[in-house]
Structure formats: C-alpha cells, structure tokens
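Researcher: Batch entry, complex prediction.
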Amino acid sequence: MTKRTLLAVLAHPDDESFGPGGTFARYAAEGVDVHIAIATDGAAGSVAEGYEDAREKLAEVRAKELETAVSILGGTLHTLSYRDSGYIGDPANEHPDAFVQADEQEAIGRVVKLIRELRPQVIVTHDETGGYFHPDHIQCWKITVPAFHAAGDPKQYPEIGPAPYQPQRLYFTAFPNTWVKVLIFLFRLRGQDPTKFGRNKDIDMTRVGVARKKLHAFINYRDYWDVKREASAAHASQGGGGALGWIPVSIQKRLLARDTYIRAHPPTPEGFREKDLFNGIGK
Ligand SMILES: [Zn+2]
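Model: Structure tokens for the complex:
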C-alpha cells in the first residue's frame, strides 16, 4: 500500500484550523501523512480582546499558536516565511516582504520544493477567490496551481528538490453558498449586518461561497469536530474560532461538520461527487 500524503498550502496561521481543519484531523487520524504549509507569519492580523499586548510580537505569538494547532490536528508544519499582507487596501500590502509582493517565480519554487520533498498525492489550497477575497489567500492559489504542474516537469526548477514529482490531485477549499445563505438569514434575524462579518468586520458574506454544483468533494468530519474546535481554540489571539458560538453545537455539527472542495485536477465531469480526497489512491 502506498503511503498516502496530503500537502495543504494555506495563507495564514489559523487558516488550517478555521478552514479545513476537520479534513486534516480526519486524514491524520486515518494514517495519512498530513503536511500543512502556511505562507505568512500572520503579523498583519488583528488581535482578539485581551491580546492587545501581543500586537507588537504578533508573528511570534501566532507561530506558537500555529505549532500547537497543527500538532492537535496531527499534521506536520511547514512555513513559507512570508510577511502577512493585509486585507484589500491595507497598507501592510505595501511592505516589501509582504506575501503579495513576493516574486512569483521564486514563490512557486518554494512550493515546488515542498512537493518534490514530500511527494504528496493530494494538494489542497485556497480557490481563486481566496474564500473571501483576501489577497494572501488568492496569492496562495496563484503560486500553488503552477507549482502543482511544475513539480512534475523536469524542465522547470531543475535546481530544486530531489527529483521531479507530479501529484495526482489538486483541490481548492470552497464552501457552498447554500450554507452562506442560511448564515445570512440567521444574521439578519439577529439584526447583524451580513456584509460586515468577522472580527475585523471586513468580510461581505453576501459575496462568498460558490454554487453547490461547482463543488466536487465533500469530506465529513463529524467524528473529528472536537479536534478541529481544539485546534481552532489554540489560535486564541485570533478569537479561537468562536464567531459562531451562538449557534447550538448540534446544529453547527449538522450544518458545518463537512468540508467542501472544488477538484481542480484532474478535471471532473459535470455532476461529479466524491467523499474522499484519496478516492482510489494508495489502496
Ligand atoms: Zn487567512
């Protein structure tokens, strides 16, 4: 049996837990080698109440939180070591070390290196909208898609890594807008503005999510709900993922204990559905 290996390339320390953490926890528990590469240091993030003192050394604080979270999920942590960019329009985007300012070819090379070293069958990254249009998320997509194809091409980046290696699957994290519509409804019911979601009030929920028919993989992680929660809680400076705390846990589990993905490669026929990112691999 081939060793199953998954590599996720995500933007910020907390994206691995607040995002597809349930998927990672489940696969790690099922014996998959789960590698999580985080592109930035999280230095441009805001801080939760009570963490104001962490402002100055935020990257350091978040590095520790990330280490704890990834170990709770059962994964191995890698970092691409870029500086966090801010959300659209944030002056942090102008910083020369900001991820969005990175030389694209060089950045792709960093992902190629990881792919050639770790030899994962499955790669996971953000989709082209970054979920909610965060420039760092979009940048991850921009570099990981070409890296996925370059890793197996001996003509590209010949100086990097032990040998060319072509992963089999490329998935983008994405969530259905049906789920988003339910949330928007609940927000309006509570008198909250769905265009100002999140601790930074900069996420317009009415613009996020994709049509269900565009989603291909549905990963149920109900059995790993608590692991994901625990990993999210490790990101205390970022609020620990408690934004939906007012929704009863039983309803959260029913609605949310499933990560959804667009399968970008290989291309899929219309109506394609799968429940396992390793469907047919390593068995
Ligand atoms: Zn993020």
